[in-house]
Every structure is written in structure tokens, then in C-alpha cells.
Amino acid sequence: MTGGLIVFWASVSLACILFDAPRWVIIHPLTLGVVTTAILTYSTHFTDALTRTASRPAALYVRLAVVNLALVALLFDAFPNLAATTAASALLWHGASIARKLRRGLPGPFAVTAYCYVAAAAFFALAVAAAVVMQDIAAHSRLAVWGFAWTTIAGTVLTLLPTLTGKRASTTARNRLPRALVAHCLALPTAAVLLGTPFAAGGTAGVCARLDVRTAARPRRHAV
Question: Which of 11, 117, 132, 178 could be stapled to 43 by a disulfide with Cβ–Cβ 3.0 to 4.6 Å?
Fold first, then answer.
């Protein structure tokens, strides 16, 4: 399902380029259709593995459907603010689901990666708020790219890259990730302030404070 959606939206974006569609029509099939669909799917799978929790594909499929339907509405300019808010709600649900798995599951030593997914979901919602509430497209794009996409990628590389290369994951990288995540959450609101968006700055600072408390807590130990 995920692969088909990604190919479809990539094709839509390519067609929009060929037919010289407006820039935002070209961008959103890539960002919402390709990137967000992939992030929703694979961050869920990685979290299930890292926290040793049971997979619930039905909830994931609902979130994917909500985001993709919201994208269709945006492309047809049908209630764009409502569509964007609906997509943000799906991502917040995604972040809450991951946070719940971190609390109730049996997280291994590299489950800290999942905190990046929680932060990324919050940044997505803030990116939507920057566009819908503040109508600040510059802040919207930076929160989406630096906050949502980059936070997800950076956290995933910590565990996925060693697996692909057949090497042991670095415990040093694992121990440094919480501090790096907090620093990232501080840098992004600073950029938002420079862009004149105090709303986004306050929101991302709140994300930073929450993650600082959660990641600083002593990790639980479980018998393997």
C-alpha cells in the first residue's frame, strides 16, 4: 500500500512539473504524498521494533488515509485550512501513538530514536499552524523540512545505518542523541524567531522542554 501511494504521488508531482503547474501544487504531492506517507509507515514499523510492541496496522492505515485525503482536498483547493488541520491532527495522533508505545512497551537501548519521531510529529503540526494561522510560508517550509523531515531522518540513521552496514550501533551516538535532539529543538525556534514567527518559536520551545524531561529520565532495564 505504502509503495503504491509513494509511486502515485511521485508521478503526480512529475506530471505537475511537465504541465507547468503552480509551485505549491508540485511541492505538496512530494512532501505530503511521498515523504509524509513514507515517514508515517516506516517510523511506525521502527517504533514497534524498538519498543517491542505489537503492530496495529489498522490505525496506521487510517492515518495514511486521512493524510492522503487531506492532500487531495488541498490540491483541489477544497477547504484548504480544514484539510491542513486534518493532516496535522493525523500526525499528532501518530506522535501520541509512538509516545504511548514508549511508555507501555519494553524499549531497548536505542528506543531513544522514537523520541525523534514524537518531536517530528509535533513539528509537522507547528508547520501547519505557521501556514494556516500565521500565513508565514517561510516558517512553514522550514518547520516542515528541518523539523519534520530532518528530525525523522537523523533519528532513523542512528539505528538503520548500522543495520544496513552490518556494524554495531554506536553507544556514543545513542547517548548523545537526546542532547542533540534538544539542541535541534532549540535551534529551530531560533530560526522561527528570526523569521518573525513567535508562535512557532514558543511551540517548538515547548516540544524541547518536554523532550528534555522525557529523554533525561533514566532508561528502564528489562531482561532479554
Answer: 117
> Is 190 contained in some domain?
yes
Q: Which residue has the cell 512529475?
A: 14
Q: What is the pLDDT of residues 37-52, one digit of tens each?
A: 999 999 999 999 889 9
- Smallest CA-to-CA distance from 98 within 77, 123, 121, 65 is with 121
Domain total of the chain: 1
The residue among 7, 85, 1, 11 whose CA lies nearest residue 45 is 1
Identify whether the C-beta of residue 221 lies closer than 8 Å to the C-beta of residue 150.
no
- 68 part of a folded domain: yes
Looking at the chain, list the stretches that DSSP marks H as alpha helix, in order from N- to C-terminal side.
Answer: 2-18, 23-28, 37-51, 57-75, 80-104, 113-132, 137-142, 150-165, 171-194, 198-216
Integer CA distances (angstroms), 143 to 55, 188, 218, in order: 29, 7, 30
In a domain, 102, yes or no: yes
Grid coordinates of 107? 524499549
The answer to whether residue 218 sits within a structural domain is: no
What pLDDT, on a 0 to 100 scale, did the predictor assign at position 101?
A: 94
Amino acid making up residue 45: H
Q: What pTM value is reported for the model?
A: 0.82
**Domain that includes residue 180, residue range:** 1-200
What integer pLDDT is reported at residue 199 of this predicted model? 52
Could you report how far apart the first and last alpha carbons of the chain are, in Å? 33
| pLDDT of 216 over the 50 cut | no
- What is the spatial distance between Cα 140 and Cα 128, in angstroms, rounded to a whole number? 7
